[in-house]
Amino acid sequence: MLRIQQLKLPVQHSKKELHDKIIKTLKIRPEELIRYEIVKQSLDARGGELKYVYIVDAEVKKEPSVLKKSPKQVVKAVRIWYHFPESGSEKMKHRPVIVGAGPAGLFCGLQLARAGYAPILLERGQCAQERAKTVETFWKLGVLDTQSNVQFGEGGAGTFSDGKLNTLVKDPVGRNKKVLQMFVEAGAPEEILYVNKPHLGTDVLIGIVSHMREEIIRLGGEVRFGCQVTDLKIENYEIHGVEVFDRTADETYIIEAEQVVLAIGHSARDTFAMLKNHGVPMQAKSFAVGVRIEHPQEMMNISQYGQDYPSCLPAAAYKVTRQTGNGRGVYSFCMCPGGYVVNAASEEGMLAVNGMSYQARDSRNANSAMIVTVTPEDFDGKDVLAGVEFQRKLEKAAYGIGHGKIPVQLLGDFCQNTASTILGEVEPCIKGSYELANVREIFPKELSAALEEGICSCESLIHGFARKDAVLSGVESRTSSPIRIIRDEVFESEIRGLYPCGEGAGYAGGITSAAMDGLKIAEAIAKKYTPCYD
User: Burial letters for 194-225: b for 16+ Cβ neighbours within 10 Å, e otherwise?
Assistant: First the structure.
């Protein structure tokens, strides 16, 4: 295979034009091109001229001679193929248990199921379809199910997000590509394999994660919903099982297991407390908090593409970062083109927000979290769960000033530290009830000052970003896990057989990286053990 780099075409081009460009670049006749595959497609808006830039792998006849006469942008393709390890020799006594059916748990479970390990997945929330109904009811009526919501349930928190699939995690063994291929096998569009910033909307993700669950079951695994792990069975620093509360049956039982994967998600605060009580090594870690900011999507499209952009282009995204005078960095996070701000609460008397998009990304607003990093030095006390309490303090404040609804404020009023009483031209796109309030009151003074400075200084990057009627909502507090569950070089805790995994354990930062970590844990288990067939 030959790899063609920097293959540029106008944004409105046909497949034939791409085909012809490949032939022209390789300096071959049409019949000499056996097949081609798009490796990457990205949009280049620099210099005012919009164009798509491709990396393409092509299989041709007489490859050595074609390569010899080709321009420098054509090189020999180097491909990384993912390989799952052969099973180890140590016999399992019981089937492996995976706690949590978010991306980390699902991908770990699916890989183990394909390798014959018949894992048991335990998920405190509902299956994706029922969970979606529960979440919609919460947004409409305000009735919160603390066990199945935007944070908990099949698919994890990423199901109700923008569904971004890009990651900055280094990938020398091909896990990233494998994750995307597994998504496609479960029903995702093939374009996610090559577009620069792929995403899957909530409406599509629900069907995909359901397909993965059905595949796990077909291969001999189990997925149990409404089943929360409430305790661990530990003897001599070894895991021997988990205690499970089944809320459907209203009973508690023990599942014996010597391999337990903790893919619990970043909001499993009660599970963090249980782990602390058992002395499982953990440490507080930095994360970020802030607000959601909404602007008209059309404003962002013009900013990124120009005034007369083609209608075929997707809703424009942005990424901004600024350094403030007090030394704190303020930056955009989980940007949702054509998206919605959603009530993402998971505990009574508290409120958190997140951003979500459907596959079409066709709402009238763009929204993004604008956040500032907080470190253990910002938390009260030195307890390992001090970051959790810091989050809760902000979420209680948000719930209070909004009287249980999402508190909303115009940027101009935020800067004046006064509650908003009327909206401007930007009408919020929000899932859940909202109330005009003073969002600034949620934060300690140094954080609100940093957010104000950082957001307003982004005006120099995007015209209109600091418009006074941009809508802020709070609080964005679940950007990442507030703790890290310590694991060693073979990915086990000090409690042998316990595998901290994914975003909740502090080793991932999004859907793809969590799924990749799930594969990593599945590999670690497979390298050591042979499946239990009893």
Answer: bbeebbbbbebbbebbbbbbebbeebebbbeb
Dihedral angle computed from the Cα positions of residues 23, 26, 32 and 35, in that order, rounded to the nearest 10 degrees: -70
* pLDDT tens digits, 355-392: 999 999 999 999 999 999 999 999 988 899 999 999 99
Q: Which tokens is 125 given?
A: 């929330």
- Is it the case that residue 47 has pLDDT exceeding 80? no
Residue found by looking up tokens 């009238």 in the block = 364
Beta pairing, strands 498-500 & 260-262: parallel
Across 52-72, average pLDDT: 94
Pairing type for strands 97-99 and 120-123 reads parallel
Q: Do the domains spanning 2-76 and 90-283+482-530 agree at the CATH topology level?
A: no
CB 359 within 8 A of CB 165: no
Other C-beta atoms closer than 10 Å to the C-beta of 124 total: 27
Using the predicted structure, report yes or no on whether residue 453 has a pLDDT greater than 80. yes
Q: Cβ(293)–Cβ(470) under 8 Å?
A: yes
pTM of structure: 0.96
Helical residues (DSSP H) of 186-338, grouped into ranges: 202-218, 269-277, 297-305
At residue 63, does pLDDT exceed 90?
yes
**What would the DSSP string read from start to end of 351-396?**
--EEEE--TT--SSEEEEEEEEEE-GGGSSSS-TTHHHHHHHHHHH
**What CATH number labels 90-283+482-530?**
3.50.50.60
Alpha-carbon 362 to chain mean position: 20
As assigned by CATH, the class of the 2-76 domain is alpha beta
For the chain, helix (H) and strand (E) counts, in that order, are 12, 26
Residue with token string 């770990």:
108
> Which residues in 437-452 are b (16+ Cβ under 10 Å) and which e?
bbbbbbbeeebbbbbb
Average pLDDT, the chain: 95
Structure tokens at 46: 């620099």
Helix, strand or coil, per DSSP, at residue 341: strand
| CA 342/CA 353 separation, integer angstroms | 6
Closest CA to 417 of 401, 446, 438: 438
Rounded distance, CA 125 to CA 136, Å? 15
Residue 89 confidence (pLDDT) above 80: yes
Is-contact 440 409, C-beta < 8 A? yes
At position 251, the amino acid (one-letter code) is E
Closest by CA position to 524, among listed 81, 219, 90, 80: 90
State the pLDDT at residue 45.
Answer: 82
The structural domains of the chain, with segments of one domain joined by +, span 2-76, 90-283+482-530, 286-476
Report the C-alpha gap between 439 and 67 in whole angstroms. 60
